């Protein structure tokens, strides 16, 4: 095993925020994977790997609760919600029953899932996450009437945190890129990487191409031209690379060892009660073998939110919210 370079670090990927004609404290609906999940997998029959509702996760969360976030504390969705004036991100779909809760937004994310449904079998795949959102939309409609419900949804923010697993786990299959990135002529990935280390080496040029040639051009034109939505695309790969290259600038001193884990770089096993954790968690990049610490979730959320277009395109989240 090369390093604890996590899927996050290799991180292909993307927070995509879409906002339709919204104001500041709008409902937030979240679709995504373990970087965004806050408890939807807790009662699912999935491998331990796709769960985190046990110590030492959550050790810095208010009340030291292991909610199902893959973090020592908050995750990135929580921080974006906080910058928007909420105390915390929206609750997980699995525990959301009250209309009042739904009006503030719902988190549908499921650790292990991908943009493609065949990524992460057994997790709540993307199609199901979207269906779950539709169920919430229907409930809102029944309770509030169609016009009011439509207005609420049309003025909501959607946070989509996805793709890391599609690419890092299995989607070196060409059809992934061809079917999901529409200008895929530009987007083939040269060779299937053989090891994690290899993956890291291949992924940057490949994804630079995907993101810059494919996503930002095709998707942005399509979004703005054909729909009523505006969006902000945050390049997590670029953010985490910058932190790893210049950690001191960001107050981080350890970008190699996971805080909670065991084995080489503390990155060979999952964070559970059976392993130890570090005390200087704010100095660490990695909380566990795949996920960042709350400190890094905060830094990257700040980058995405307040960014002057180094990491976000075509606008930052703040501009997304203010421009409405
Ligand atoms: C997606 O999830 C649904 C519901 O669990 C399941 O029926 C479907 O087979 C899944 N799709 C894939 C490709 O795994
Ligand atoms: C912790 O260790 C015990 C004893 O070896 C084992 O039975 C248990 O499954 C382990 N728990 C986890 C979460 O790995």
Q: What is the SS-derived class?
A: alpha/beta
Taking pLDDT < 50 over at least 5 consecutive residues as the criterion, the unreliable ranges are: 1-14, 181-226
Can you list the strand order of the major beta sheet?
3-2-4-1-5-8
Computed CA radius of gyration, to the nearest angstrom: 19 Å
Distance between the termini: 47 Å
Taken together, the total number of domains comes to 1
> Which shape, going by the Cα principal axes?
globular
Largest sheet: 6 strands, mixed
Helical content stands at 25-40%
The kinds of small molecule bound in this structure are: 2-acetamido-2-deoxy-beta-D-glucopyranose
Count of runs of 4 or more consecutive helical residues: 11
Mean pLDDT: 79
N-to-C series of helices and strands: HEEHHEHHEHHHEHEEHEH
Number of extended strands: 8
Beta-strand residue fraction: 5-15%
Family: Belongs to the 'GDSL' lipolytic enzyme family.
Keywords: Hydrolase, Lipid degradation, Lipid metabolism, Signal
InterPro entries: GDSL, GDSL_Est/Lipase, SGNH_hydro_sf
Protein name: GDSL esterase/lipase
Explain how this protein is built:
The chain is α/β, with parallel strands linked by helices. The protein has one domain. Helices cover 36% and strands 11% of the residues. A six-stranded mixed beta sheet has the order 3-2-4-1-5-8. Strands 6-7 form a two-stranded parallel sheet. It is globular, with a radius of gyration of 19 Å. It starts with 6 loop residues before the first helix and ends with a helix. 48% of the residues are buried. Bound molecules: 2-acetamido-2-deoxy-beta-D-glucopyranose (2 copies).
């Amino acid at each position: 095993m090369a390093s604890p370079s996590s899927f996050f670090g290799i991180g292909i990927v993307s927070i995509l925020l879409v906002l339709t004609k919204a104001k500041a404290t709008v409902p937030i609906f979240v679709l995504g994977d373990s970087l965004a999940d806050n408890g939807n997998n807790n009662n699912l029959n999935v491998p331990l790997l796709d769960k985190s509702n046990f110590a030492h996760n959550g050790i810095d969360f208010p009340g030291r609760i292991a909610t199902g976030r893959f973090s020592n504390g908050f995750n990135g969705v929580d921080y974006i919600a906080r910058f928007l004036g909420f105390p915390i991100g929206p609750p997980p779909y699995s525990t959301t029953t009250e209309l009042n809760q739904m009006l503030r937004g719902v988190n549908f994310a499921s650790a292990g899932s991908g943009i493609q449904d065949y990524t992460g079998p057994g997790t709540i795949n993307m199609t199901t996450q979207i269906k779950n959102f539709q169920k919430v939309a229907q409930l809102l409609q029944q309770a509030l009437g169609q016009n009011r419900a439509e207005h609420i949804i049309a003025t909501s923010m959607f946070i989509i945190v996805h793709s890391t697993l599609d690419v890092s786990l299995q989607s070196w299959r060409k059809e992934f890129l061809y079917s999901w990135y529409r200008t895929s002529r530009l987007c083939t990935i040269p060779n299937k990487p053989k090891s994690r280390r290899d993956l890291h080496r291949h992924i940057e040029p490949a994804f630079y191409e995907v993101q810059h040639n494919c996503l930002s051009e095709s998707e942005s034109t399509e979004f703005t031209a054909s729909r009523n939505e505006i969006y902000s695309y945050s390049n997590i790969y670029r953010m985490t690379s910058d932190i790893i290259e210049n950690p001191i600038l960001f107050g981080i001193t350890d970008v190699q060892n996971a805080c909670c884990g065991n084995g080489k770089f503390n990155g060979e096993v999952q964070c559970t009660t059976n392993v130890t954790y570090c005390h200087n968690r704010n100095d660490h990049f990695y909380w566990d073998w795949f996920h960042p610490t709350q400190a890094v979730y905060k830094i990257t959320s700040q980058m995405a939110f307040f960014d002057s277009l180094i990491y976000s395109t075509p606008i930052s989240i703040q501009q997304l919210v203010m421009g409405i």
